[in-house]
Amino acid sequence: MLLLVFLAGPILWAFHASFTNAALTGRNARSPAWVGLENYARLFADPVLPLSLGLTVLFVGGSAILGQNILGLSIAVLMRRASRSVSAVVGTAVVAAWVLPEIVAAFAAYAYFSRDGTLNQLLAGLGVGQPDWLYSFPMVAIILANVWRGTAFSMLVYRAALDDVPGEVTEAAVMDGAGGWQRLAYVTLPMIRGSIATNLMLVTLQTLAVFTLIWVMTAGGPSNASTTLPVLAYQEAFKFGDIGYGTAVASVLILIGVVFGAAYIRLLRDPKP
């Protein structure tokens, strides 16, 4: 019942609104009319859609599937081999970014990548160029910011998964002459396959919905260079007041999330013998 009220209800409303001319203000806000597939026809003819879709895939692939996932696994593996004090310091530093409120983390990332921010101050000390990251390389900046913000979750998932790998299995691999990379590739990773798929699904769906971080850092600019689908949906619905068109964008985003979720659930199933 709670899922129906708090999840299915808003999703169904969004799909319904995408077939109307609902607006934020005015006559269409008071009594929206049914327009069928008109919003979707406009959307698929909009030249911004392919750009926004590509940027969304780049953002999810770069920051979640590659960045957070691989970095989180690497840190978890290295922490098992580090001393307890080093492991505690590294774990605290990584988790600190994750526990920050999203708006605070977004302002911290903006301060780091802005023209006069921390990164350019460090580069100035090294005597190298100081580009305007948020204007010249907006996607690089927000991908790195999201990796910094979300790696802690993957690290915690993989630390718990690695702790469940039986020690005798690893010892048997060592006795068979397997090196470190061979044990990781042929013993550890297959045994934590379910955790990898679960982590990939969660960080992918979470990253698909990231809005605050991008909006604070670049607001989708410059010239739509960082306008992912959540930013496009917000701009259309609340900046231009076209709720029907904005919910059509949001509906496409929901369908993309469903596709990713179905793919990861398939990965979670045990392979047939």
Main features:
273 residues; mainly alpha; 15 helices; 77% helix; globular
List the helices and strands and how they pair.
Elements lengths: L1 H16 L9 H4 L7 H8 L2 H34 L2 H16 L2 H12 L4 H9 L6 H4 L1 H26 L3 H9 L4 H12 L1 H16 L3 H6 L11 H11 L3 H26 L5
Helix pairs in contact: 1-15, 3-15, 4-9, 4-12, 5-9, 6-9, 9-12, 12-15, 14-15
Total beta strand runs: 0
Q: Classify the oligomer.
A: single chain
Low-confidence stretches: none
Question: Main beta sheet, described?
Answer: none
Structural class: mainly alpha
> Element order, helices and strands?
HHHHHHHHHHHHHHH
Rg, Cα atoms, Å: 22 Å
Beta-sheet strand percentage?
A: under 5%
The pLDDT mean sits at: 89
Query: Total number of helical segments?
Result: 15
Q: Can you walk through the features of this model?
A:
The two termini are 38 Å apart. The protein has helices at 2-17, 27-30, 38-45, 48-81, 84-99, 102-113, 118-126, 133-136, 138-163, 167-175, 180-191, 193-208, 212-217, 229-239, 243-268. The chain contains 15 helices and no strands. The relative contact order is 0.15. It is an all-alpha fold.
